[in-house]
Amino acid sequence: MNVEPLLVYISEYVTLTEDEKTFLKSHLTSRKYLKGQYILQQGDVSKTECFIISGCTKMFFVDDDGQEHIINFSIKNWWTSDLGSFISQTPSNFNVQCLEDTEIIQFHFNTIEMLFEKIPKLERVFRKIIEKALVASQNRIVRNFSMSAKERYLVFKQSYPEIEQRIPQYMVASYLGITKEFLSKIKSQISLEH
Amino acid sequence: MNVEPLLVYISEYVTLTEDEKTFLKSHLTSRKYLKGQYILQQGDVSKTECFIISGCTKMFFVDDDGQEHIINFSIKNWWTSDLGSFISQTPSNFNVQCLEDTEIIQFHFNTIEMLFEKIPKLERVFRKIIEKALVASQNRIVRNFSMSAKERYLVFKQSYPEIEQRIPQYMVASYLGITKEFLSKIKSQISLEH
DNA sequence: ATTAAATGTTAATCTAGTTTAACTTTATTT
DNA sequence: AAATAAAGTTAAACTAGATTAACATTTAAT
């Protein structure tokens, strides 16, 4: 199990002893998915929090009209899961699907509270992760309220240049909350400006 | 200091000993604000996390065009603060203003990590609070992406009936991300349906 | 190399929500 | 009780972005 990137990630927040690392490792599992496979499906309960070692995923939901809306993308050294479903162990409204072959490390619901008891520092790590996710989510609301689609696209481009290269444009449009046709128009507008 | 509601709130997540309660209390402060006063102003660093004992607040930002956008309302037994500013101790983009005379209890940035060290259970409480806030924030994004303004208004009405009674309608519009004129139209439409 | 599937583009028409502006109602102050 | 300010309404003209549909390009499969 390629757990090293996760340990490096954790070490940015807290310092674990060798014993703690060993104990932690013994309660994690790793998993590989192929492009197109689902890590989580709408209606299922999320049993794991996933740290991404390599690859790329999207989290999305399908609305009543059958339209797909992308909540976020995740790449290496970031997390993915429907936290709401995980916390409350209720059916998720979201899907997590791999956009590339993807390797993840899983924290399991039925051991995570025990891990927090044994290694309280881990609770700190998770608190900080969730804080960061909340800030990101709130910033997204701010952007959706105060910026035009074009401005949001430019922010996305600047914030996640690596991601834009790796995914089809219609998914960027879905993430931005606009149609692929309109994103196409925005891009041609931008190219005319230069 | 009327700390009881906060202790009741905490007791829904963890059980504190009498000693822990006493220690906690000794590091909290309470404060009263009049209607219209600011708890936090755009540009200032948020030094506190605020638990509301009574009253009502709005968190909002002012965009480049001078337009006000309301992120959320808070009433008794809920929290308010710009978590991003608090976590990173950087200037906030948000304002928190009292819509009624409001009493709060404050956790201070310079003692909160120490509180977590001394009473690790508190870290759990905060993790859960932030989790709930994240879920709420994500649900808001989902609604903004997949629902019309009318549907969002109906959800707001149903979710926070107490709040709708207490605040002017133009603030509801701002929260929903629409103009007051359009909310007015929506309401007259709805009243025609019945 | 060909074909089929997936992705991206362009343009015309349409609509949810904005803007502007004039007016009404409700609260607040004197 | 009058005067003023704050909040809410209505309607016409406007715009950002959606929808539809036809076509172009790239990628993947045979």
Residue-averaged pLDDT of chain A: 94
Q: How many beta-strand runs of chain A?
A: 8
- Structurally, the number of domains of chain A stands at 2
Q: Which segments of chain A are poorly predicted (pLDDT under 50) over 5 or more consecutive residues?
A: none
Separation of the first and last Cα atoms of chain A: 48 Å
Q: Largest inter-chain interface?
A: A-B, 33 and 33 residues
Major sheet of chain A: order of its strands? 1-8-3-6
CATH architecture of the largest domain in chain A: Sandwich
Q: Helical region count of chain A?
A: 9
What is the makeup of the main sheet of chain A?
4 strands, antiparallel
The CATH class label of the largest domain in chain A is Mainly Beta
| Class per helix and strand makeup of chain A | alpha+beta
The amount of beta strand of chain A, in percent, is 15-25%
Structural Rg of chain A = 18 Å
| Shape annotation of chain A | elongated
What is the string of helix and strand elements of chain A? HHEEEEEEHEEHHHHHH
Multimeric status of the protein: homodimer
- The helix content of chain A, as a percent range, equals 40-55%
CATH names the topology of the largest domain in chain A as: Jelly Rolls
CATH superfamily of the largest domain in chain A: Jelly Rolls
